Amino acid sequence: MRSLVLLGALLASVQAGAQTAPLPSFEGQVIYQVMPDRFADGNPANNQGVNLDDPRAWHGGDLAGLTGKLDYIRALGATAVWLTPVYQQQTANTSGTAPYHGYWPADFRSVDPHFGTLADFSAFVKAAHGGGMKVVLDQVINHYGYEAAAVKVRPQWFTTDADCQASAQKDIDCPLAGLPNLKQSNPEVADVLLGADDFWRTQGVDAYRYDAIKHVEGPFLKTLFARNRAAGTWTLGEWYDADTGTVADWQKAGLDSLFLFSMQAAMKGSIMGGQGLDTVRAVLERQGELPRPGEVAMFLDNHDVPRFAQGSLFEDVGRERTKYGLRALMTLRGVPVLWQGTEIAQRGGADPDNRRQMRFENQWTPDERAVYDVARDAIAVRKASPALSRGTLALLNVPDAQAGNLLLFTRTVQGQRVLAAWHGGKTRETYSLKLAGLKLGAADIRATTTLFAGQDAKVSVSGGYLHLSLPPQDAAAFVLP
């Protein structure tokens, strides 16, 4: 569902002005998402209220711990780190839950003591940049925390129940999950939020992820987007359950990227649920609607949805299909986003179970290590291939009889071409498909092995046919001449 009035106004305003500066871009990046409280504890002195046995309490992770684990993130292959909010939170719990996640702010320009200090944040940014990684900071622009002082001190900043009842745009004027809902049209509120953006930019932040943009006033978003474009700051928006049309509209309205939830749902159903690859194909068939397909955020899971591996009742199946998902993700066009722990097929149901404490190498089982090895290799393959990193994506016309279990597409850039093959079959299969039917032009090639390590997959071309030998439930990638 989309707010057509809001989007229409934004589109008209953006299209009225000419784009003069180069657009900020994250195409070619691989983002690793971290919830600092659940990642690594680097300073036990700030562990007030920590209870590791309570999934709704603080767990002690902080900026010092994250900085100390940057080598881990870099070794995995990520090129950017996205942090959920680290600024000052409300001090009280609400409904038995602490604000460990960072989405109940009380002060947008200071670091919560549980995470450390502004100096700790500066040290993190310096270390990340020193290691060649970009920093993406989560920004809340819709609300304050339930118990934030501003709610009582400045009631004029917030919508009222009467505002909500009278509104034709309930998503914007009514509270999200009961949170104090900001009036971004109030100049004081706009100054606070825009000033926070400027403040964190001066701290070295490279990009912003904006929470819950569906619930924010359009004129404010127009200003926000324009300021970020002028500053060269890449922007990633969260519109829960966004499909291709929603992403396209927001890109036209000035955001660089959104999460493509429809692809996440399709991958979960087809790869983890074994429901066939038709839904993935259906999402990819709409890519032509996207103004900037190379910027769209692609993901298997995040902190708001159950873990990808949780899609199977059996942990061993969950791990194997996570390997499939990781390889598949790295063949897609867009910006891959990996939630902490997905690289070891960490399990977890709905919030807060999907936010379990991160576990590192000395705690892994051999099976978890095997998933990590696949994740690291898949990222390395993507980064080493200009076609996989930045190439266009062209679907191939697989015959109807095979379409449920076989998805083929090429990624191409500057004459370099990679064939991606997703195979949903439960047993090893060999396919011989007419090149003419696929609408694929290719010279004869002898058997070529997959780019992914430890995978027995091959492709060859001869006599006008594409021959594929594919393992069950996995994604492969091959260089084509």
Question: Can you walk me through this structure?
Answer:
33% of the residues lie in helices and 19% in strands. With 481 residues, it is α/β, with parallel strands linked by helices. Strand 9, helix 13 and strand 10 (335-339) form a beta-alpha-beta unit. Helix 1 runs parallel beside helix 9. The protein is globular, with a radius of gyration of 23 Å. The relative contact order is 0.10.
Spell out the key features of this protein.
four-stranded antiparallel beta sheet; 481 residues; 19% strand; alpha/beta; eight-stranded parallel beta sheet; 17 helices
Count of DSSP H/I helices:
17
What is the number of strand segments? 18
Q: State the shape.
A: globular
**Mean model confidence by pLDDT:** 95
Radius of gyration (CA) equals 23 Å
- End-to-end Cα distance, whole Å, is 43 Å
> Which structural category do the helix and sheet elements fall into?
alpha/beta
What portion of the residues fall into strands of 2 or more residues?
A: 15-25%
Q: Helicity level, as a percent range? A: 25-40%
Strand order of the largest sheet: 8-7-6-5-2-1-10-9
Low-pLDDT windows of residues: 1-5, 14-18
Largest sheet: 8 strands, parallel
